[in-house]
Amino acid sequence: MSQTLEKKPAPSRDAMPLSGPRMPGSAPYLVAAAALAVGVGLGMILGGGLIAMAILAGLTFIVGITVWAWALEGRRSGVDRLVMSVVWAAFAVALVPLASLVWTVLSNGIPALSAEFFTYSMRGVIGDEPGGIYHALIGTLLITLGATVISVPVGIMTAIYIVEYGRTARLAKAITFLVDVMTGIPSIVAGLFAYALFVLIFGPGVRLGFGGSVALSLLMIPVVVRATEEMLKLVPDELREASYALGVPKWRTIVKVVLPTSLSGILTGVTLAIARVIGETAPLLIIAGSTDSVNFNLFADRMQTLPVFIYYAYTQPGVPPDPSIERAWGAALVLIAIVMLLNLLARVVGKVFAPKTGR
Amino acid sequence: MAKSIDVSDLNIYYGDFLAVQGVNMTIKARSVTAFIGPSGCGKSTFLRSLNRMHEVIPGARVEGKVVVDGQSLYDPSIDPVAVRRQIGMVFQRPNPFPTMSIYDNVLAGNRLNSRRMKKSEADSIVERSLKGANLWNEVKDRLNKPGMGLSGGQQQRLCIARAIAVEPQVLLMDEPCSALDPISTSAIEDLIHELKSDYTIVIVTHNMQQAARVSDETGFFNLKATGQPGQLVEFNPTKKVFSNPDEPATEAYISGRFG
Amino acid sequence: MSTTIDETRAGGRRPGDAIFKGTAIAAALVILLALAGVAVFLLYEGIPGILGAREETDASFVSYVWPLVYGTLVAALIALVIATPFAVGMALVISHYAPKRIAKPLGYVVDLLAAVPSVVYGVWGITVLGPQLVPLYRWLADTVPWIPFFAGPASTTGRTIFTAGVVLAIMILPIITAICREIFAQTPTLHQEAALALGATRWEMIRMAVFPYARSGMISATMLGLGRALGETMAVALVLSASGVITLNFISSTNPSTIAANIALRFPEATGLAVNLLIASGLVLFAITFAVNFAARYIAGSSARRMSR
Quick check: C182 and B63 in contact, CB under 8 A? Predict the structure, then answer.
């Protein structure tokens, strides 16, 4: 610092080492094979199970490839390899529960499936008499339908207000904030709200399917609003202005130009919102209750739903417990299948209804 | 000392798409080499293949040879990380790290290699590099302010300071002035003139006057035809390219008849 | 972004416009009313529970709800500590490590985790995960009993607060991963290339360019995950064998309960004041999740303002 610094750097840069000892491209595979051998070998010697072997193999791989890279290519390369293998290992480990869960539900659930399972309710079913989830299916469908009927218009119109009318209004800002708050409402609190609301009308101990719809729509509305908002914002302003320029009033512009353009995204968002709430248990446990019989009336009496059915069939199986627990797994399988189908449907809907343009 | 670059039979791909075909040239050490040509003809792609930045894009790959200091860059024994350290790069848009101060931005490359640096050593690298980039006088009082607070031209010079702080052999510049106003552009051009005595400089530019002003040699890239890969049409001393080019296509481009 | 086009004149003249706009505002007001309703009704039904807690439980409301709050926080924090590193790793795999071809399918696989209903996670937690963790608990209790978390005696069923935390971690993994991966992918190419061109390895590039850019987003993602974990009910209600104690011991058979699980377990059979008491505890849960979510949005929002400066 003290000497007069020249403007130009004056380094001695004659040497330019670019090459060094490099690991072969097959290095990860070699290490993986060795790690597998170590894992299985040690596992057999020490008498560990499959999990222990997998953990041993994984750790051997991480240590092996790091040490090799560090020794051959230097510290920085070693750290790079370490992070890469740790990150991939994290991914693999995180998928173990998913695989285990899918396997458990499939292997326990498939034996329960039969024609009776889908067409019988649990009314008067004792022990291993044939019983099914018909009542729960009906309840889930009706309650979710009710929630959709409430949430979709409210959600879409709110999003229209926020995007098309309320850009600068204080109310729109407040609503955006409240939608954020709604996103964070725990599902059980939504159930308590529905109960607290209907208890004022029907008195203590109220249980009805429509209460479930109200609770679920509290969870569903923010999802619909968010999805619609995103889609409406994507509609280019030129489209709106072109329509105004033709003398089309604003509301018809929204209905005829803006909404059709964003239809696919909105439908996808709605489908995903349904998929999210159809598996909800806690609010229905509180307000829709549980029953063994079929109930088609949303506005009176307890209504069984799939998630609540699973909960009670598993936790209060009766004597003997096995048939009931098997039915719980069967219902879990059906419920997961419904949610997956809805997710799949959302993707298909998004593709089918996408605006047919080259853009 | 600064190194020359020998390129032979270089083909550059994006996946299956051949973007640049059959480039041969020798880039002289301690000189400024400019690449000109119409948009999309592969100048920048070629530049990025000189320090193995091209392969950062998924699916991108290169065939052929680039030899620097007797070492073939695409040899399997070559560490691309070391290549990029020796062959620095300045991008089209200034890209200082937004969360770092000016001081830390300059040292970003050095800190990769030596984790612990003496404060005095770090200070002298920062001062030397910023002086090298003609930025020292403007920022010496606010070294700990974020780099994003500077003007566009200052940011670009900060990026040049960051590139020369690791003392590379070669400096690649990808349209370094295209996002800058004329005054900042002229500052960068002056800087290129000064840096030439220490570095081999390769610059891609859209601006033919700029190529004529700053470079010693000029390469003209063009598409063979629409939809065909780009190629090097002519590579000659700048004076010759701009006064008496070998190829009619070069003359047509320079006199503004197309592109 | 679209400009606001002033349509007030047109709106005044055309009944269609007025009606449509009115409907839109009405929908927005429904949301306002719904949330006000949540607050008002929960308070209306909950306050008698707070005031009458002593009749119902022979103790004040605070001493009733405190162990539940403690359990809720412990379970959610265990979940967060486990889930965050995994989520960041998985997000990095999808955004930066996996080849493009398989990154997208990997993203779908993570989303599948989110598609499993919580009651199914709960049933899986009891039948599969709990028993699998018992040997680990036994080993921990034998080997490191001086760590208060693992003091033992180890649970024989695996239905501990730690197991509940693991299940919660799996459940919040997809949301944290999804947000993180979106932010990682948004890191400007310019900054990533700047790092690479200086001779950074992939990890050094991530540390220099990606993490600084994504830091506040990652924090807010974990807080949103925390909000989820706090409010999650069924998985905990099923997995946890709760006895309402306050303990640091994560692996024994006596565990604190959580607010949500306590409501789910007791509500179906509750009558009278007990119902009000449960609703009051729900109000506490609402307040906690609100605070956490609000903090998450605030962090995300303030950094967005800083970045766009």
Answer: no
